[in-house]
Structure formats: C-alpha cells, structure tokens
Design goal:
Elements lengths: L1 H21 L5 E7 L17 H8 L1 E8 L5 H10 L3 H4 L18 H6 L4 E6 L23 E3 L4 H4 L6 E2 L11 E5 L8 H15 L5 E6 L7 E4 H4 L38 H31 L6 E7 L4 E2 L5 E2 L5 H4 E7 L7 E8 L3 H9 L13 H5 L9 E6 L4 E6 L3 E6 L6 E5 L17 H14 L2 E4 L2 E4 L2 H11 L1
Parallel strand pairs: 1-7, 1-9, 2-13, 3-4, 3-7, 6-8
Antiparallel strand pairs: 2-12, 5-6, 9-12, 10-11, 14-15, 15-16, 16-17, 18-19
C-alpha cells in the first residue's frame, strides 16, 4: 500500500509538472530598434550623453559591450537581423534591393513567432520601408511579417523640413549634416513621439495574448530634429570633433575613407560639425525619452515579468573620427552597436564583453521562446551569455560594406580588427584594439604582424567563401577554402 501511495504521488506530481509546462504562458517580445545610434550612451560610459531610459533598461538586463552589425547601412543591416542571414545570403547591399527577390520563402523573425500563435505588429521603421506616413506597404517593408502595422508621421516630417539647417545642401536630408531645434513642438508631436504613442496603444490592446511587437524609432537618424529642451542638454562648447593629422589619409587605403566625400567631414567647418553633433546628441536624448514611455507602459500593464525586451541599433555612427561622418565604413564606430536584452531568465545588470553579432538575435529569441528554427542560421543563440554574461564564447564578428565594384570585409576578434578591400587588392588594415582602440595606427604593412594577419585572413575567407556582388556569386577555389576554414575552426 505504501508503495502504491508513493507511486501515485510521483505520478500526480509529474502530471502536474507536465500540465504546467504545457500551459506555461508564452513570453512576449518587445523589439525596440533605433536608427543610426552609436554607443555614445550613459550605460556605455559616455560622460556627456544623457540616456536615462536606455541606462535603466541595461540595469535590468544584459548589456553587450562588443556587439556588431553585419553591414553599416540601414536596409542591409535590417534585412540581416530580421532574416538571421548575412548580407551575402540576403543579397541586400543597398537601399533598393528587397531580400525576397532572391529569397521569396524565407521566414522572417516575426513570421516565426506568428506561426506559433503570436500577434506580430510593427510601429515605425523596422525594415527600410520608406518614409513616415506612407500608407500601405511602400518601399522595402515586408507585409507578410506583420498582422498589423502603423507608419506615424509627426511635425518633424510634415511641417518642419523647410526650416531644417543643412550644411551639406548637395546631399538629401536623409544623408545630410542637418539639424533643427524645435522651439514649440512637444515630444508627442514628433514622429518618434507618435511611434511611442501607437506602440503603447498596441500593448494595451494585445496585452492578453502573446505578442511580438516591433517598435522602430527614426532617431537619431539625420536630420537631427528634436524639441528644444533636448538641445539645451548639450552646451555647444562641450561638443568636440576630432581633427585628423595632416598625413592621416596616406596611412590607410583610399577605400577606407570613401564613405565621406569630400573628406573630411563632407567639407563642413569644425564649428558646423560641432553644431551638428549637438543635434545628434539631442536626438539621442529625445528618442531615449520615447523608449522610456514604452517601457513604462509595459510595466504599468503588468507585462514586465513575461516580456523579453531587445534594444538594438541597425549600425553605429562616426562623428568625425577618422575624418568620417555617418556610417558605411569598417571602423569600430560604424560597425559596433548598442545592444541590450532584458526579461525573464536574463541576468539583471549583466555586462558581457563577448563578441556578438546582430544575426545572433534571431536564434536567441527563438531559443528563449522555445521555437524551432526554420533552417540552419549562421548566428548563435546568446542564451548562455544572458544567464552568465562572461561565459566562454569564441566567435568573431564580421562586418562588410560595398565600394561600388568591390567589397570591404572586416573581422573583429577580442584583440584585433582586420579589414580587406577587394580581397586585399585595394589595400588592408590591421588595428590592435587593446593598444589602439581609436584605430589610428594601421599595422597592415608591418612585417612583424605577418602571422597575425595570416590567421585573420583565414577567418575572412572562411566567412566569405564566395565573392558576392550585385546578386552574383564568384566562387573562390573550393579546395583551398575548405582547408582554410578547417584551420580557422
């Protein structure tokens, strides 16, 4: 009888456990994207930039100090994170090509969640879909990724554009050194204020069902427009823009500086660059405030304990370093991104020094939600680092750009950054990130680093076994590639 009672107790306990596991509430995902934001944030060590809401998100999750995008340009980077594929797989190298042209059946991240019963919606910019206020699915959005979407447009887009100060009038506002301090507008009147408002409405409407809510903010993307109070946070006299040594351009391949023409700083003056930098920082603080509104709403609705929050930028941003402005280069400023994950099972206040990539986001969220991946992906789940941020991790990070007829390919390891232009035919770069974190001394021509360069070359060729440009692939010698990849592993 005692044996029977013991067996019955164990059976009932196991049944209860299985029932609980089967009915466990699916974790929500709040997927917060910002545009063109670099790591000049309080939680990343900036003594100047005020980002209290992003900072408190970092305090309740894991901040990744070495996270890298795959291509420092909006559409290639966003296509990569949303599909979990590298740019050479999506074939997206510009702002015109859509990944479904070559991959019509690829399962995007929100699609994966929808297939598991989630409500998936987008507010603002996630894909490079077009302009705020567009009706329908214009540009490079992906309609099948969403059950619902909202494209807000505020006064920064509808009434203020004619007043924006543009120091590079030969460039469109989307790539100009341009800014405006809005003296009368409220946060809620601007596009990102409206993004926050619409996101909160969706949280309130769908709080009772599992959701994947992608909230895409437009700032601090140029033109840097924000209410006046955010400009007031940054006295102009505190804005500093690096001045390059007279012979600097001769120390690196021409392709490395090609993204800013004329070089340096698109030809603007130091004073003008300081004013523009003030606008950039004002835009960061403005969008930080909107992120805070969304996180506060999530907490108010009682969703905090069952929601994974992912905060990411599509790429970094250069503010005068190397004489460059904006993105589309292979230096640390453009390749490195702010990246934070918070939620159930994530170590609060964790800081990870490991090398991670934005393509790791797809498998990570699938892992956290218990979803099977639709295909093998090149990224890796970061779940071990979310529980133990300093856990062993031996993966490098890869970033690439295109220079018209040839690629720039860069690998980042804990110690080194190595970049090849046109497979080395247009030059190469090597930087010791421990001794030279500003990447100002190119060691590629120093014979004493030949062994290091040889090892890093293997990583580059293992990651890019094919030459892909404009949707066409040129295979390298397969036998040699297999040998190099085996050595690299």
């Amino acid at each position: 009888m005692k044996t029977h009672r013991t067996f019955l107790a164990v059976f009932l306990a196991l049944t209860a456990s299985l029932f609980a596991a089967g009915t466990a509430k699916k974790p929500n995902v709040l997927f917060i994207a910002v545009d063109d934001m670099n790591n000049d944030l309080g939680c990343y060590g900036s003594p100047l930039v005020k980002s209290p809401n992003i900072d408190r998100l970092a305090a309740r999750g894991v901040r990744f100090d070495r996270a890298y995008c795959q291509f420092p340009l909006c559409s290639p980077s966003r296509s990569s994170i949303m599909t979990g594929l590298r740019p050479d797989q999506t074939r997206v190298f510009d702002l015109q090509y859509h990944f479904r042209t070559g991959l019509p059946d690829v399962v995007t991240l929100p699609q994966l969640f929808m297939r598991s019963g989630y409500f998936a919606a987008r507010v603002g910019k996630i894909y490079h879909y077009g302009n705020p206020g567009d009706i329908g699915t214009s540009g490079l959005d992906d309609p099948v990724s969403w059950k619902e979407f909202v494209n807000p447009a505020g006064r920064d887009k509808t009434t203020l554009e004619s007043d924006i100060i543009n120091y590079t009038p030969q460039r469109g506002l989307g790539s100009a050194m341009a800014f405006l301090s809005d003296k009368t507008g409220r946060d809620e009147d601007h596009t990102d204020g409206k993004v926050a408002t619409e996101a909160i409405k969706l949280l309130e409407k769908h709080k009772e069902e599992p959701f994947f809510l992608a909230v895409g903010f437009y700032k601090p993307h140029t033109p840097y427009v924000a209410p006046r109070k955010y400009f007031d946070l940054y006295p102009l006299e505190k804005m500093e823009v690096p001045v390059m040594p007279a012979n600097y351009a001769k120390t690196v391949p021409e392709a490395a500086l090609y993204s800013t023409r004329p070089w340096p700083l698109f030809g603007v003056t130091q004073q003008q660059a300081r004013e523009v930098k003030q606008g950039y920082y004002a835009a960061i603080s403005f969008v930080d405030a909107q992120i805070g509104r969304v996180i506060d709403a999530l907490d108010r609705l009682g969703l905090r304990d069952n929601t994974v929050i992912v905060f990411w930028s599509d790429h970094g941003y250069s503010l005068g370093t190397h004489g460059l402005w904006m993105k589309q280069n292979c230096f640390e400023d453009a390749a490195r991104v702010p990246f934070i994950v918070a939620g159930p099972g994530v170590k609060a206040g964790g800081v990870s020094p490991r090398m991670v990539e934005l393509i790791d986001v797809y498998p990570t969220l699938a892992d956290l939600a218990g979803l099977a991946l639709p295909t093998k992906l090149p990224g890796a789940s970061l779940r071990p680092l979310l529980a133990k941020p300093e856990a062993e991790w031996n993966r490098p990070a890869f970033t690439q750009v295109e220079r018209g007829g040839f690629p720039g390919r860069s690998v980042r390891t804990p110690r080194w950054r190595y970049t090849e232009w046109d497979d080395g035919k247009q030059g190469s770069e090597l930087y010791d990130e421990q001794k030279d974190p500003g990447e100002m001394k190119n060691l590629a021509g120093d014979s004493s680093y030949a062994a290091t360069i040889s090892e890093l070359k293997l990583l580059v060729k293992a990651n890019w076994p094919e030459r892909v440009t404009g949707g066409k692939a040129e295979a390298v010698t397969k036998k040699a590639t297999r040998k190099e990849k085996k050595k690299a592993e």
